[in-house]
Amino acid sequence: MCSSEGDCRPLGFLLGLPFAFLSLLLSIVGIVIWIVGLLLTCICPCCLCVTVIVEVALELVKAPIHVMEWFTEQIPC
């Protein structure tokens, strides 16, 4: 991945691919939890704990991006 400064870190990207795939599987679980949580929130909007679960599910959906960013930052070029 290349940043705006122009430094490319292809090794970090390649090393992070297996972990990004695992986090992609977690994000699929997060999508399912998110959909169920949204349905529960629509049924009973007074359930505050469901809102917290939906927020955690959204972070699971964003996990592959965070993993790849972390790996590319760890490899110095």
UniProtKB/TrEMBL annotation:
Keywords: Membrane, Transmembrane, Transmembrane helix. InterPro entries: TAXIMIN_1/2. It comes from the Eukaryota. The chain crosses the membrane at residues 12-40. This is Transmembrane protein.
